[in-house]
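Duplicate of #3305? Posting structure anyway:
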């Protein structure tokens, strides 16, 4: 049984997720903690909850999702997991940080590449990796079918979608990812996005003003 805890971090208001099981094993997804107090908040939560971080995961590597990668790597000795197509985005993030006036310490560890439709296990639970490009070339979502929730990164938001005007973005590809990878999931699936509130697949199919399901 997995539990999802979220934090909103950095001036870019990014959602960082901790997903943990009843044995205290957890994944840290998109650690966007930028300031020292945000890093302390994350660390104290993990400590006080008695959680043991097992994985450092990125849905994609825009700077707001990777600010805390190096901090998590150093603090918990975790190796970053991401899709291979995000490597150039990860490499470029520190330059983006300088351009945006948000310099940060880049990730310096090894990389482990996650594959489309691969399975990531945390104890008795598992996520399937969905490849959902368009916002970023190697955007992935972590889908827990047994508990009907998905960590969607910046692909799908409540009544909105991710931007496609960053390098490697593609509007048509983004729409295709949402229709063919996300809108095919059951309506009740909870969506934990990279920004803003939680939503569901069914709510977005009904109400999303940018991408509607195709009707046959
Ligand atoms: Zn993004
Ligand atoms: Zn973002």
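Output from current build:
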């Amino acid at each position: 049984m997995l539990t999802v805890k979220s934090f909103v971090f950095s001036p870019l208001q990014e959602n960082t997720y901790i997903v943990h099981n009843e044995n205290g094993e957890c994944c840290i997804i998109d650690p966007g903690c930028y300031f020292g107090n945000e890093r302390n908040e994350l660390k104290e939560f993990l400590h006080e909850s008695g959680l043991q971080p097992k994985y450092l995961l990125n849905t994609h590597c825009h700077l707001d999702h990777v600010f805390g990668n190096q901090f998590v790597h150093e603090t918990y000795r975790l190796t970053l997991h991401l899709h291979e197509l995000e490597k150039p985005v990860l490499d470029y993030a520190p330059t983006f940080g300088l351009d945006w006036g948000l310099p940060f310490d880049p990730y310096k560890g090894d990389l482990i590449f996650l594959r489309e439709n691969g399975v990531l296990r945390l104890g008795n639970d598992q996520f399937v990796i969905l490849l959902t490009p368009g916002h970023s070339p190697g955007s992935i979502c972590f889908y827990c079918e047994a508990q009907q929730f998905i960590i969607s990164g910046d692909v799908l938001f409540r009544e909105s979608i991710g931007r496609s005007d960053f390098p490697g973005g593609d509007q048509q590809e983004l729409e295709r990812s949402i229709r063919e990878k996300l809108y095919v999931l059951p309506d009740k699936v909870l969506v934990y996005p990279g920004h803003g509130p939680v939503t569901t697949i069914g709510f977005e199919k009904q109400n999303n003003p940018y991408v509607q399901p195709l009707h046959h």
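Confirmed duplicate; merging threads. The mean pLDDT is 97. The longest strand covers residues 3-9.
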